[in-house]
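Pasting as-is:
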Amino acid sequence: MILDKDSAKKTAELLLQINAIKLSPESPFTWASGWKSPIYCDNRILLSFPEIRNYIKAEMARQIQHLYGTPDVIAGVATGAIGLGILVADIMELPFIYVRPQPKSHGRKNQIEGFLEPGKTVVVVEDLISTGKSSLNAVTALETAGARVMGMMAIFTYGFDIARENFSKNAVALHTLSDYTYLINQAAAINYLREEQLQTLLAWKNAPDQWKP
């Protein structure tokens, strides 16, 4: 869910500005799931742009505060949201932890890195939501460790139906700074796309698991 429309538009504009969003309808990307996609989102690149990362961290902190008040802990999902989560935790002056996809196979075999006391409230920070599977895996790990997960804040979501279903089924509140609709609208507004590219991106969004170039 989008909390602030102006912020959603600006976030989309900034991601396009630094090429965090790669649009390539003619030469699509292949995701780990095997899906072919005309778009690829790499929000980690924003860490290399101080002004933009400062805007993103401040906006995420503001929206977390508005939605949840002040949680006890900020948790980032490895690996893409570790840097972002640290920035948000720092500006909110809160402890930070991060969650691996699975426990380490050596050492202490941790899945959660950092100190987490059972019963503490946690807001999870993500960089990107596609199907939501990996993000919700982190929530499960936190809850298993005794955390009270209040919700999740991410930079961007593709807005897939399967993601909405997964978050609803797991009763996890998801808010994002921006989404696919704002991104496409902004890309069209600044002539980032040709008309045929825009139509391709809209068609892909309707059936990403079936789309072929």
